[in-house]
Design brief:
The longest helix is centred in the middle third of the chain and has 20 residues, at 97-116. The protein is globular. Helix content is 16%, strand content 34%. It is of the alpha+beta class. It has a six-stranded antiparallel β-sheet, with no helix packed on it. It has a four-stranded antiparallel β-sheet with strand order 9-10-15-14. Strands 11-12-13 form a three-stranded antiparallel β-sheet. It binds zinc ion. Residues 107, 111, 195, 208, 210, 212 line the site of zinc ion (ZN).
Length: 247
């Protein structure tokens, strides 16, 4: 039977440490806790790495975090050669914060890109130094300079980023909220998490389960490194940190 892990990062993406209890160890050695701050790989955002500290001070390195049989079951995958934990044991969790914060900045930057390029999204992948979003774009006139300028305007405006829950019915009444061409947010759970940008979501809102920084200013300087053509109407935009290199 799948466990339901309390996902503390959904309400507070800035939690770096927390306490939890081991509720199960799966047949592959994956650790399941009652609650966690470790984000599990999904929606194009990679899962967290970090450590679990036992009562005796020993540490278990967590190499990856994934979902199990259901999206609600979060599995902490230990690095090779780690000590074994017992069900019922209390542990102190710590995520690799520097990496997570880069992912939060990058993930939020992907949302800004979808504001500047308001076209159906066909794919996305976030990583700590380079992220990509693929769009179905009939118009090939976008340049990396223009798109970078549009994104940096939103960064400099320092808009708030926050989440809000809406019902399945509200989502059904506002189909325009869904920007993804192929992926539909899960319905039937009663609540859909919207990630909103700007006062009263004036800049953007879209369903997303990932972790983001709390304002666009915190993203910092970013640029479009490349726009690649992937088929007749498909364009892949690559986001990188820092100013656009002069050439
Ligand atoms: Zn997101």
């Amino acid at each position: 039977m799948a466990h339901k892990t309390e996902a503390l990062f959904r309400d507070d993406a800035y939690l770096r440490t927390a306490d939890a209890t081991v509720v199960a160890i799966n047949e592959r050695g994956g650790i399941i806790l009652d609650r966690t701050i470790f984000y599990a790989t999904s929606g194009g955002q990679p899962g967290d790495s970090g450590t679990l500290e036992c009562a005796d001070g020993s540490r278990i390195e967590i190499a990856a975090t994934i979902t199990g049989e259901t999206k609600d079951e979060i599995i902490h995958v230990p690095a090779p050669e780690q000590a074994a934990l017992a069900v019922g044991e209390r542990v102190k969790l710590a995520i690799l914060w520097e990496r997570r914060h880069l992912l939060m900045r990058m993930h939020a930057a992907c949302h800004l890109l979808t504001v500047v390029c308001p076209f159906p999204i066909t794919g996305a992948a976030v990583s700590e130094d380079d992220s990509r979003v693929d769009f179905d774009i009939p118009d090939a006139s976008f340049t990396k300079e223009d798109v970078t300028a549009g994104m940096m305007d939103l960064v400099r405006a320092d808009h708030p980023i926050f989440t809000r829950l809406i019902s399945d019915e509200e989502l059904a009444a506002n189909p325009g909220l869904v920007k993804s061409k192929n992926v539909r947010p899960p319905v039937g759970t009663g609540n859909i998490r919207l990630v909103c940008i700007g006062e009263s979501a004036s800049v953007d809102s879209q369903p997303c389960g990932g972790t983001h920084v709390k304002s666009t200013g915190e993203i910092g300087e970013i640029h479009i490194g490349k726009i690649e053509k992937k088929g007749r109407e498909n364009r892949r935009f690559r986001i990188r940190f820092g100013p656009m290199p002069a050439n």
